[in-house]
């Protein structure tokens, strides 16, 4: 017995609709990314069409934020610039989800750097003198310089005044309190150099 016309039309409609949904799914995933990127570009004049934001990015303060070409920012990242603060991202940088960059002086990140999820990069701290509540003391700040081709693992904390040399690797959950030489692997709390990176042999 043939199914009723209404049921046949319903099945046909659902079949066509499901195919359209499958075809449009990639567009649906990309559209929010373009919206978040457009919002970011509206706030950061130096960001251009090569910038990509995977989700919402929070921007706080009135300091200067400068981006190079082809930077990709993960969702739920936060950029804060206070007073004379400046954040400079060079070209081809990947900053992953939930990372916080805070600058009262300067935070500079070099070309091809990778910053792991939920990392904190902050160039300032509250004062710690006795006699005045720390919350009421002025901040002390010192620039943070992260070199080219640096890989900072997930959950790291980069403290004021630190320079991380070109090609260095910082292990996950490390606290970087002092300079890390170029082309070394460092990890721990506080981070210490474990070894030098090795060249690949043919």
UniProtKB/TrEMBL annotation:
GO terms for molecular function: transferase activity. Pfam families: Hexapep. InterPro entries: Hexapep, Hexapeptide_acetyltransf, Trimer_LpxA-like_sf. Coiled coil: none annotated. It comes from the Bacteria. Gene3D superfamilies: Hexapeptide repeat proteins (2.160.10.10). The keyword Transferase applies. Keywords: Transferase. Signal peptide: none annotated. This is Hexapeptide repeat of succinyl-transferase. The lineage of its organism: Bacteria, Pseudomonadati, Thermodesulfobacteriota, Desulfobacteria, Desulfobacterales.
């Amino acid at each position: 017995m043939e199914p009723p016309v209404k049921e046949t039309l319903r099945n046909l409609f659902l079949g066509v609709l499901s195919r359209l949904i499958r075809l449009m799914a990639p567009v649906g995933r990309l559209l929010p990314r373009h919206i978040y990127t457009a919002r970011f570009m509206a706030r950061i004049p130096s960001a251009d069409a090569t910038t990509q934001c995977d989700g919402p990015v929070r921007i706080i303060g009135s300091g200067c934020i400068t981006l190079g070409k082809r930077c990709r920012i993960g969702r739920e990242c936060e950029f804060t610039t206070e007073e004379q603060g400046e954040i400079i991202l060079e070209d081809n940088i990947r900053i992953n989800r939930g990372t916080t960059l805070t600058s009262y002086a300067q935070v500079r990140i070099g070309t091809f750097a990778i910053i792991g999820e939920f990392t904190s990069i902050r160039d300032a701290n509250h004062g710690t003198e006795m006699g005045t509540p720390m919350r009421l003391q002025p901040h002390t700040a010192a620039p943070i310089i992260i070199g080219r081709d640096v890989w900072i693992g997930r959950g790291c904390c980069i403290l004021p005044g630190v320079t991380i040399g070109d090609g260095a690797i910082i292990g996950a959950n490390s606290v970087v309190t002092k300079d890390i030489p170029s082309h070394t692997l460092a990890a721990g709390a506080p981070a210490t150099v474990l070894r030098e990176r090795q060249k690949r042999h043919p």
